[in-house]
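Practice problem. Given the sequence and the SMILES for flavin-adenine dinucleotide, write out the predicted structure.
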Amino acid sequence: MILVIGGGVAGASVARFLAKKYDVTLIQDKIWEKPCGGGVKVKVFDEFGLDKGLIRHLIDEVEIFYKKNKISIPLKGKNLAIVRRDEFDAYLREIAKESGVRIIYGKFLGIENGRAIVRVGDKKEKFNYDILIGADGVNSSVRKAIGLLEVPKVLTLYAKVNLKVNSCRFFFDKKLGGDYYGWAFPYDNLAHIGSERRSFENLCKYLGVSPKPRGYYIPTWQKGIEICKGNVYFVGDAAAQVMPMTFEGIYYAMKSAKILANSIINRLDYKKEWEKVYLKDFAFMKFLETLSKTSLRGVLLNAHKLNLIKDLTISFWLRA
Ligand SMILES: Cc1cc2nc3c(=O)[nH]c(=O)nc-3n(C[C@H](O)[C@H](O)[C@H](O)COP(=O)(O)OP(=O)(O)OC[C@H]3O[C@@H](n4cnc5c(N)ncnc54)[C@H](O)[C@@H]3O)c2cc1C
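Answer key:
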């Protein structure tokens, strides 16, 4: 019996794949809309057999703003989709259910004598498991329950605002984006915006909006983060599997879920399997992210005025 904690993109995906072979129960805390820009590579729809009707916007270029420059980067076609996370996550849980996963809405509280304690309604229930999967996001309670360190993370502020944007915009001035970047993505007739806490107010002033933001952490991946211990495995934000520099977490959570399911089914070493596929790309992007925190940020960004660099960047993004 496999118990998956968290029914976001990582948990719903790993549960779906494991249900082909095992008895799988998934515990999801609540129905909500994860604070997220909802930007995901379009190829995820074909790779995971998902309904393209979930796509709210199709994006064919991104715009980088830096020191009064705007650089447009075409994405070689409409290769970036924007989804609404409440719809997308609910859809993935529905597919998991159709694949045989038992879904229980409740909150994982901890582990006692090898059993998971879950609050379901106003009762505490105990669940046996042979394998436990922590897909419970950046503040993973499963990590805490087994005494693993939290994943490294950065606090971002995020809001929906009344602003018209047709592409995905990235603001790289430190004032607007801090060590990483500020962003504005379309969300139906509104926009999602976000930035590190210290730069959010400046970003709002720059965009001419004054929303009430919500704070949420995003993992900052680094080499060596533990992603399994004994019969407990982690996937998605709970394993910090968010691409450095771009901060794409949806696609990599789902791809990592596939690697984890395959490793469990075929009794392979999950960490090794994950590293075989992603270590090089994640380490390379971490290197760029580190450079981007230095005075070389301008060099990295301005290089994207050259068509050759735009082309290389997008080819890498589409391949990874
Ligand atoms: C502001 C912001 C913007 C972002 N924008 C993008 C973007 O545009 N594109 C992109 O690719 N990535 C983006 N990300 C990253 C992306 O949202 C995450 O990487 C992705 O959601 C990870 O999926 P997950 O399933 O691992 O975790 P989550 O989506 O966090 O899902 C975890 C689930 O576990 C549940 N849970 C938590 N604790 C418990 C518990 N104790 N018991 C039961 N259930 C529990 C939660 O309710 C949640 O549904 C963004 C992140 C932030 C914060």
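Check your answer against the key. The first strand starts at residue 2 and ends at 5.
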